[in-house]
Every structure is written in structure tokens, then in C-alpha cells.
Amino acid sequence: MLEALLIYPRTMDIRIDKTAPVIEFSGERSYTVQQAVYIGCTGVCALIRQFMADDQGIANGLYSKLLNAQEAEKRGNLKAKEGILHAFLNQVDAKSGKKLTTEQAQILKKLAGYL
Description:
The chain is globular and about 35 Å long. By secondary structure, the chain is mainly alpha-helical. Helix content is 57%, strand content 10%. It has a three-stranded antiparallel beta sheet with strand order 2-1-3, with no helix packed on it. The chain folds into two domains: 2-34, no CATH class; 41-112, no CATH class.
């Protein structure tokens, strides 16, 4: 699943040849490269839109929770943000195995933990 590739940190071995500007993905020398990917509220909403294409009503409820959590954080109200994200997680759990696959629900819950 493409979404999972975008979410989970991964490492890869690469070979750097000092005589050429090209980086190859195999070779005798290897270096660990880690790349962090930032995904915010907008990115999670895009995944919800993709996952819930057939039920925009539920998707809108999930979006609104994320946007409200983001606004609470901007106001400095971290307790409200935490409560709203908890409601988001509860709704995702309720839709897991129904409107969302178990994998999709796990992805959304993992990402919500980073918000």
C-alpha cells in the first residue's frame, strides 16, 4: 500500500562513488540514510478522503475533528486538542473493519499520534 510507504521510516543502503555524481542503491560501501516525512493535518485529511471516498459524511466528521484539534493547539489549549484527538481515535476505531479496513484505521491512528 502506497500510504504505508509514505508513513513508516525506512533505511536503505547506497553506494557513493566519488568519481561520479550518481548514487546507486547497491555496492561495496554502504551508508545509512534516514529521511523524515512530515505529515500534518492536511496530509491526514487527504488520506481520509482517499480511504473514505464512498462516504463523505463520515470523512467530514473525521476532518472536522482534526481541524478542531489543530485550532485548539494554535490557541494553546493542549487539553482540548488531546480530547478532540481522542474522539477522532474513537471514531476511527468504530469504523475499523466497516467503512475503513483494519490497515487504514491503523494508519490513521498512527498518524494522529504525530499531530
